[in-house]
Structure formats: C-alpha cells, structure tokens
Amino acid sequence: MVTKDQRRRQLAREKFERQQQRRVQLRHKSRMRNSIIAAVAVVVIAAVGGAWLGGAFDSDGKKTTAAKAASPSASAPATKAAAVKDPCSKPAPGSPGTQQWKTEPAMSIDKTAKYTFTLQTTCGAIPIALDAAKAPETVNSFNFLAAKGFFDHTKCHRLTTTGIYVLQCGDPTGSGSGGPGYTIGDENLTAFGKADASGSVTYPAGTIAMANTGQAHTGGSQFFLVYKDSPLAPSYTPFGTIGPDGLKVLTKIAGAGEDSGQGDGHPNATVVINKATVTKS
User: Which residues cross the membrane (predicted)?
Assistant: First the structure.
C-alpha cells in the first residue's frame, strides 16, 4: 500500500519529469519555427537580389522558455519580488559562448584520479568532487566543456523549492533548452538503491546530477545541484558530491526563493557562473 508520504514523493517526482519532457517538446517546436523563418528568409533574399536581412536571425529572440508548468517566459526578464534582497553580487563582465560540437569528446580523463569541478559563482564558490570511477563519460564531458569555457558567464536558470530541492544550471542560453550539441549516456543510476513504491529514490543533499529530457541517454550540459534531500526517479546520472561550503552557498540561493511563487521558477538570486574549472589532483 502506498503511504501518503510516498504519494507526495511520487507527485513531486512526476512533476519534475513532466517539466523536463515539456522542455524538449518546446525545443523541437523552436527548431521547427526557426526552420520556417530560415526558409522564408531565403525566399526574401532571392527576391531582393541577395540583400542581407540584418538582425533576422538574432537568437536572443528565438529561444523558448524552460519547460516548467509555473515558470514565467524566459523571453522577458523575471520580475523579482520587491521584498526579496538579492544575496549575490553582480556578474563578471562577459557573455556565454555559443560553440557547439557534433559528437562528445574522446575519453581523456584518468578514471582512477580525483577531479574537482569548481563553480565560481556570483553567490560564492561551489567546489564539487567528481566521481570519475562511476561516471567517467559524464566527468570526461564536463572536463572538456569546462576547458572550453562553455559554462563561463552562464546563468543558473531554475530553482525548485517545493517537493524537490534543486538548482539547475549548465545552459548557455538560460532558457532550459540549450546544450553542447551532443548527448551522453546515463551512468551510475543505481547509486541510491532501488526505487520505492512511488518509483523514486532519494537524491541526497550535496548531489550533482545530470538533467535530461525524460528519455534515456539525453544528457548534455545541464546539471542540477541538490541542496536538500529530493525524491526523484533514478534516471538522472549522479556524478559528484558538493562540499559543505558549496551547500552553504546553495542554501543562501534557495533562501532568496524563486520568481513563480509556485516553488519552481527562476532564482530570485542572481546566480551566474563567472568561471567553471575542472582540476585533477
């Protein structure tokens, strides 16, 4: 028999997964819309003898919002509650990169070595011990992306404060639909044991795990940082552990809340990754 607590955990997990699935649906719609725009532009260019349509392909206006049932549109800046004081500092000068890759990088890490993924954010440093032995493909990908500056100047675009407690980052577009151009496989999915009657396991506070579209092997660059024990399906690759200092930073961010008022929106805190590095020790 499913208890009330198990049912609550199941509902929270299902909500999180629905949001991930809706995100990829929006991404597909965005791509289709952009294809139509591109086709129309070709016709117009031909009609005017190859005149350049300045600004027609400005990607800033073409990105869809993160697929969240209660979050506001990413096409307009989130409005922060007047009573909420931003606990973070201003971002360092710079803009997210736009580089994409067709295939994931070749394996180059030492699976027996220790690696640290450090996020220098506007809210403080978040050091993360990566598990290269249990999630080598994921760690290898993050080592590659960090070296390319892929995460630098990117905004953490999602905060959940009800049922599931995570900060989601890793999308240069800030929309919830961006990635590096390639996907990687799932790893280490049995790390937290078997699922309970609601189909979930507990991702403990201090976990870093991969976000995905709700389908297997669809991880890219987006990841989430768990700041409080959270019930989730064992479908999201856990690949490291956040240290105590990093958890303090996450608690500060979570304390400022999110902008939807529904427990799932953009962080009220200005959370920007100024610099991300992976170091071997």
Answer: 36-57
Tens digits of residue pLDDT in 26-39: 554 444 444 433 43
- Is the pLDDT at 175 greater than 90? The verdict is yes
Q: Which domain holds residue 159?
A: 4-280
Residue pLDDT, tens place only, 207-219: 999 999 999 999 9
**Adjacency order of strands within the sheet including 238-242:** 154-155, 272-280, 115-121, 124-130, 238-242, 207-210, 223-226, 166-169, 158-160, 264-265
Nearest to 63 by CA among 171, 180, 212, 148: 171
Q: Which two tokens stand for residue 57?
A: 């392909």
Counted domains in the chain: 1
Both tokens of residue 110?
A: 């030492």
The CATH number that applies at residue 193 is 2.40.100.10
Q: Residues near 30 by Cβ (< 8 Å), separated by ≥ 6?
A: 62, 63, 64, 177
Query: Which of 34-38, 42-46, 75-79, 246-250 has the least mean pLDDT?
Result: 42-46
